[in-house]
Design brief:
- The protein has a seven-stranded mixed sheet with strand order 3-2-1-4-5-7-6, with helices on both faces.
- It has 222 residues and is of the alpha/beta class.
- Helix 4 runs parallel beside helix 5 and helix 6 packs antiparallel against helix 7 (196-220).
- It is 44% helix and 24% strand.
């Protein structure tokens, strides 16, 4: 049984021949993909030898073959290109650094723990198209899960997911309402700045708030 977060990752991944589970941790995702025939082979990597040992034990206990384990950083330890890669549970800056590798030019499922704006910007600069974003709320925290593929994209406001590609579900609704509350606090700070730069920031934040409100209105009639 996967968590809601991992379940959403799997839903975006679909079936693939070879999947890289970058930062596989305890190997739950790697094992699940093979047991459910969503991958023919998995390359499970981690920079923690202790985590790899736990992943190996899980694969053995579940009698799952076709997992190759690699100790190393990101894509650098992979023996060949893959059809898809999952990088979840790391900071946006860390993931942004990892996907600079040439082997990362494939279908990516990314789940940053923070700094998603940095990751969106990096995806754009590296020539990836953000195809879909799913928001999951788990244990009181919001997670953005990003499906990106090689291809040209148009620039967007990296502080928000590309709104036209955000799956509008209940969790996304709460996520956007949360974004509005955060932006309103920033709006108050910009107003108090009483400067040309502060006025510019005030107008920018206002624009973002109105954009989010319009998305919610179109989706829910609010």
């Amino acid at each position: 049984m996967l968590s809601s977060r991992l379940d959403a990752i799997v839903s975006l991944l679909d079936k693939n021949s070879i999947v890289a589970d970058i930062g596989c941790d305890h190997g739950k995702l790697s094992v699940f993909l093979l047991k459910n025939k969503l991958a023919e082979k998995v390359f499970a990597t981690d920079i923690s030898s202790a985590s790899l040992d736990k992943a190996k034990k899980l694969a053995k206990d579940e009698q799952v073959d076709n997992i190759m384990f690699f100790y190393g950083d990101g894509f650098s330890c992979l023996p060949q290109p893959v059809d898809a890669a999952v990088i979840a549970g790391m900071g946006g800056q860390v993931i942004a650094n990892i996907i600079e590798n040439d082997l990362a030019k494939t279908k990516l499922i990314l789940q940053p723990m923070k700094d998603s704006d940095i990751l969106y910007k990096k995806l754009f600069s590296l020539g990836f198209f953000v195809e879909k974003v799913v928001v999951i709320r788990e244990s009181g925290r919001f997670y953005e899960i990003i499906l990106a593929k090689p291809g040209s994209d148009t620039a967007f406001d990296y502080e928000l997911p590309p709104i036209d590609r955000l799956l509008m579900n209940e969790d996304a609704h709460m996520f956007l309402e949360h974004k509005i509350s955060v932006l309103k606090k920033a709006l108050n700070g910009a107003y108090k700045a009483n400067s040309i730069q502060g006025k510019k920031r005030f107008d920018e934040i206002n624009r973002k708030i109105e954009l989010i409100k319009e998305v919610i209105k179109n989706a829910y009639g609010e």
